[in-house]
Amino acid sequence: MSAPAETSFRETAVGRTSVAALLVSHDGARWLPAVLEGLQAQTRPVDRVVAVDTGSKDESADLLDAAFAAQHGPALRVTGATHFPAALELGLQQLDAVGEPPQWVWVLHDDANPAPGALAALLAAAEQHPEADVLGPTLREWPDLKRLLEVGVTISGTGRRETGLERGEYDQGQHGDVRRVLAVNTAGMLVRRTVLEELGGLDDQLPIFGNDLDFGWRAAAAGHTTIVVPQAVVFHAEAAHRGIRRTPLTGRHTHYQERRAALYTLLVNSRTRALPLQVLRLGLGTLLRMIGFLLVRSVGEALDELAALVSLYSSPRQILAARRERQRRHGKGAADVSDLLAPPWLPYRHGLDFVSDLAAAATHQAADVAERRRAATLERDPSSMVTRRPSLDDEDAFEDTGVVARFLTSPIAVLLALFVVASLVGAREAFGSVVGGGLSPVPESVGDWWHLHLDSWHALGQGSAVPAPAYLLALALVGSLLGTTLTISALLVLAVPAGVWGTWRFLRVTGRLVSPQGAPRWVLLWGATTYALVPVVSGAWGEGRLGPVVTAVLLPWLAHAALGFADPAADRRWRAAWRTALLLALVTAFAPVAWLFGLVLGLVVVAAAFAIVPSAMRDRSTWGPPATAILAVPVLLVPWWLPSLVHGAAAGLVLDVGRLPLPAVDTRDLLSGRIGDLGAPWWLGVLVLAAALGALLPRATRIPVLVCWIVALVAGVLAAALGILVVTLDTTTTPLGIGFLVVVLQGALVTAATLGGQGLAAATLRSVGTRRTLVSVVAVVAAVVPLGGLVWFGVGGHDGLDDTEDTDIPAYMVQRSMTGDEHGILVVRGSVETGLSYTIRRGDGVTLGEDEILTRTPEDAAFTDLAQTLLSRPGPDVVDRLATQGIEYVVMPAPADGDVAALLDSTGGLVQASAEDRETRAWQVGRELDEQALEGPTSWLHLGLVVLQGLAIVVVAVLCAPTAERRRR
């Protein structure tokens, strides 16, 4: 800026207008040279420059002094804790202290570079629009220079900053009209000094973000006009908004500061009558925004949304004080600014845009995954680009033909369809209500499952604080849609078809990891159908053992997720960790020993990796994901895990779900894949074992087959170690639950056999004669396994299931017990010679989930003494104690012991009751029942653990999703 030019301007500008530039900097040395050059190159120079540096640690203050110290004085240096409104106020004081105060103040940032004609355009617009008190330029992205950032700005009812621009819109002169707006950005804002002082400057509660919107709103409410001048251009780097520059004021949570500023602006400037609705709307809107951020895996921004809302709602005095200050300045004549705010329908349009963006992102992600797989295939086998003729076994063949034609011309598809239909026929016993074996009846309402999961005290027996089994949460979620009966029926009916789907997907991926072509579809068909029948041929299905059945369906998905630990990209390894953790937690809920197996297998694999490639294991992103997957499971299951230890029910952490005792599994059962006495013939499992052993022969697939054998050996050794242990409970003695390990062992053997078949098929293509004949014989023998299992299942090898539950309790007593927990039934079985035992029935009997709570609940010694006294030395005081314990009936099912029955007949307070069976004896307690007999304490610890589990599930589910990075230049 030359002195002659300045003198010439002042001679022509006296008595008309004067402008002072107020420049605020903080660690802006990377932008300041260009900004200073732009300021000095203005076609209409400024009259004065006041620079304020807020504790810069770089050379920003020195650059300011070098540019302006000679003519306008040195920069005002203040501490880094000085926020932007305070720096602006200090600059105004500096202007007032030296010379005549200017008429206009031009506010600039250290990352906002004005075009040479920016100030001239602003002043020209001020002359043409004398009613304008605040003027703002067009903001373009720096260094892009053409992309528009803002041409005036407003705010929506949800706090969103609205610019009216499309994403990535370029400046082509389409926004060329000077118009009135709610606010303009402080970067390049030209404001009358009197208006700035009248409004008290910028709000100190908005230290860095949002102060322009608040100032514009207050100016409009005070009757001042703000316009945007598109002909004036300022290039803005948005360093604070984009996270390029971090200061003590912005911190690491930029989104929190921006969201808090937006909420504050709405709350302090809204009309009084609209404030209650605004408070409610912002609260609900914040929850919806959190869900949206979680859907795109932006957990940090979701938490920032919540933190911003809590920060403001927890300090209402701050909001009220700001509102009073605005009312004091505006009085009762505040102008209506509703026409300057964003249209009320705009947030809903943004919601639709968000949904469409999610759909587009999912589509693009699927395309990217497919592209990566194709690229990996070409990298491993460039010859796969050679044009080939499609065959019936090609998944991508016949794309131009109809779906039906493709289906009928594919023998694999036809066989899979026939297999699924045959499996549904074999599962006919599971249609409708199912009970029997290890499966207890289901409750009538899914609310019973929810109560068991959420309540810390259960009105079962004489009351129990033992937590509900972990799998009830999954059943409750599904049961809320399907109902209790249909949920269990669907789990059993769809076990085999769902197993085929998951196994096919897993085996196809593993096959492609071994070779680009993957496994032949005939081999995949054998592996998928053979494994899908594991829960059936093992006998777990016929026994009603939900644990092995459900985990057999989930295991291929869990294994597929764990394959991500070998991904070369660290981000995908961590995403695999969260997916594995979620699936392992679900598997552990149905088979508690699964977590122990995962821990042992993880230690074995990590130890082997350290021994083989120690350099790679030094990277935390290599060993961190599997460790995270294992350690996250106890947190995801904490409402079951921790209370089980506290309340003496730790045995539940090593037992399978369902009724006790559990079936014993010996060595032959382990090798043949049998659980219980209802399994298929043992030789079917032996054929799978032989196939897995034979898979070690082909060289091409020997290494992955050895990996499968390592998994099988870990499962087998752990099963053998746990199989010799027993758990003694108050009601029974049972072996540990190793059904899951049997499923894992069979899954590892089937995978090994499938990979071996893939290697054998590849070798066969290069051979002729007797070798091909041998392979054909092997294929025929292998086909016996799925065919034999399917035929055995179809003819009915599962007679442990039924659709009714036998009861020897009179129906009217059952109905009475369902009216309240205090109407309990004491059921006494046995005789004096063989020994007497008792159970207590309440409500609709022992249902799924309740049986496990009861078997793991320690014996109530006081009530056992009461029952012994009743059956040996009964008296009126004993009857009174029964009433206080919530017992209304005493029943001795047939055949009742005559001596005990005669003793009870003569007891005062017991009234003989009718029974449907003549040999069944029953009595009613003739005392007033205690309605609070079964009420127990509420555990706030359990409630906190349930909340922690819910949050953990949401967070892990979000972290499972693909990364959604908000990329900013």
General description of the model:
The protein is of the alpha/beta class and 969 residues long. It has four domains: 246 residues, Spore Coat Polysaccharide Biosynthesis Protein SpsA, Chain A, CATH 3.90.550; 36 residues; 301 residues, no CATH class; 115 residues, no CATH class. The strands form four sheets. Strands 1, 2, 3, 4, 5, 6, 7, 10, 11 and 12 form a ten-stranded mixed beta sheet that branches. Strands 16-15-17-19-18 form a five-stranded mixed beta sheet, with helices on both faces. A two-stranded antiparallel ribbon has the order 8-9. α23 runs antiparallel to α24. The longest helix has 35 residues. The radius of gyration is 38 Å and the shape is globular. The two termini are 32 Å apart. The N terminus and C terminus are likely disordered. One of its GO terms (molecular function) is transferase activity. Pfam families: Glyco_tranf_2_3.
Shape: globular
Strand content: 5-15%
Q: What Rg is obtained from the alpha carbons, in whole angstroms?
A: 38 Å
Mean pLDDT, to the nearest integer, reads: 84
Are there runs of 5+ residues with pLDDT below 50, and where?
1-15, 380-401, 964-969
Would you tell me the structural class of the helices and strands? alpha/beta
Measure the end-to-end span.
32 Å
How helical, in percent, are the residues?
Answer: 40-55%
The largest sheet, given as strand count, sense and whether it forms a barrel, is: 10 strands, mixed
* Tally of separate domains: 4
Number of strands: 19
- The number of helical elements comes to 37
Assembly state (oligomeric) = single chain
Organism: Nocardioides psychrotolerans
Keywords: Membrane, Transferase, Transmembrane, Transmembrane helix
Pfam families: Glyco_tranf_2_3 (PF13641)
Protein name: Glycosyltransferase, GT2 family
